[in-house]
UniProtKB/TrEMBL annotation:
<dbReference type="GO" id="GO:0016787">
    <property type="term" value="F:hydrolase activity"/>
</dbReference>
<dbReference type="Pfam" id="PF00670">
    <property type="entry name" value="AdoHcyase_NAD"/>
</dbReference>
<feature type="binding site">
    <location>
        <begin position="151"/>
        <end position="153"/>
    </location>
    <ligand>
        <name>NAD(+)</name>
    </ligand>
</feature>
<feature type="binding site">
    <location>
        <position position="53"/>
    </location>
    <ligand>
        <name>substrate</name>
    </ligand>
</feature>
<comment type="similarity">
    <text>Belongs to the adenosylhomocysteinase family.</text>
</comment>
<dbReference type="InterPro" id="IPR042172">
    <property type="entry name" value="Adenosylhomocyst_ase-like_sf"/>
</dbReference>
<feature type="binding site">
    <location>
        <position position="237"/>
    </location>
    <ligand>
        <name>NAD(+)</name>
    </ligand>
</feature>
<keyword id="KW-0520">NAD</keyword>
<dbReference type="InterPro" id="IPR020082">
    <property type="entry name" value="S-Ado-L-homoCys_hydrolase_CS"/>
</dbReference>
<feature type="binding site">
    <location>
        <begin position="214"/>
        <end position="219"/>
    </location>
    <ligand>
        <name>NAD(+)</name>
    </ligand>
</feature>
<feature type="binding site">
    <location>
        <position position="125"/>
    </location>
    <ligand>
        <name>substrate</name>
    </ligand>
</feature>
<comment type="pathway">
    <text>Amino-acid biosynthesis; L-homocysteine biosynthesis; L-homocysteine from S-adenosyl-L-homocysteine: step 1/1.</text>
</comment>
<dbReference type="InterPro" id="IPR036291">
    <property type="entry name" value="NAD(P)-bd_dom_sf"/>
</dbReference>
<feature type="binding site">
    <location>
        <position position="180"/>
    </location>
    <ligand>
        <name>substrate</name>
    </ligand>
</feature>
<dbReference type="InterPro" id="IPR015878">
    <property type="entry name" value="Ado_hCys_hydrolase_NAD-bd"/>
</dbReference>
<keyword id="KW-0378">Hydrolase</keyword>
<feature type="binding site">
    <location>
        <position position="272"/>
    </location>
    <ligand>
        <name>NAD(+)</name>
    </ligand>
</feature>
Amino acid sequence: MSSDIADPSLAYEGAKRIEWADRTMPVLRRIRERFAAERPLDGLRVAACMHVTTETANLIRTLQAGGARVALAASNPLSTQDDTAAALAVEYGAEVYARAGIDREGYYRHIHQALEIGPDLVLDDGCDLVNILHLERTDLLDGVKGGCEETTTGVIRLHQMAREGALRFPMVAVNDTDTKHMFDNRYGTGQSTLDGIVRATNTLLAGKTIVIAGFGYCGRGLAERARGLGARVVVTEIDPVKALDAVHQGFSVMPMADAARHGDVFITVTGNREVIDGTHLAVMKDGAILANSGHFDVEIDIPALAALAVEVHRDVRPQADEYVLADGRRLVLLAEGRLVNLAAAEGHPAAVMDMSFADQALACAWLAAEHAALAPAVHEVPKEIDTEVARLKLAAMAISIDVLTPDQEDYLHSWRLGS
């Protein structure tokens, strides 16, 4: 099988790290055992565009256990772990197209190479693979039964495609499950983003003013954890309901135009572009740190930052570039404006991705069985899948919960009983 990886000799080290991650992914491990017995994906070809990490590797192993042939391209050049890519290709028999730090041209070439598998199912992080299928590889569309999207950014793009009547096959919004929102977005992004910032800068967050753009699940997790580390937290929002929620959780809320003057650290998690623009950058204090945890590198206006700078000092620390403005102020951009939690750290802990990838695996099996009855639209993950993942996680943690009695079940499904 073909692959394009940086160094096959890294496979042994990669396999050790994949197995280490697997220790804290008990839900996915149980699903892998079930898939090996039931083979719900037998004979199917899966093309995936995802972050090439140890956790993703265990999802790929699960799909393979279910009978699938898998081709994987990286969804971000800075998040690729070359040893993981090598292990997947050499030790586990996947087709892998991923090299850390590859340029834009190589990034898209790898997606095209993964699509050469002629996919029955697709997995996407950010909708780039699905986008290419619809714009450049329309010859493959008739063979695609469906797919899964794991990011907020990707789901936004898919909904727009569906509204315009452009989407040609059913896509499951794995991003929107409760287990994904609660753990991946809130706990995973919350912890791993701050981990990336600390690794890249070795800054003390206690006492700092941290400005968080966006108060969705990711922003909430970030705000909670930043406050827990002793930071003063400012939230910027466009949604009045989310802004009201932030206020009642005790966070300061203001427009970015005001927050820009006060922040020590800025973190964007909105899924939109130019959330921090040139007017904001122009008034920031000396030494302000700029980080993004949205999927694409458009949330911070990097061209505007470059235009303001008279000097740029690359890699003043790993994954930290210093932009010197005309008046001597310095702004520090982390991870080139890409996902700081994956580029400057290791992304979410495996225990978090356990549930997200369990959702993905079970959604793939569901699509394989039900695709013929599904319209080309964006579909929610069936509630029973989300519930099963949560139940398996609780079981792995040796936690029991109550169950309804027959009388309670009858009461909830009856309208005849009064007060």
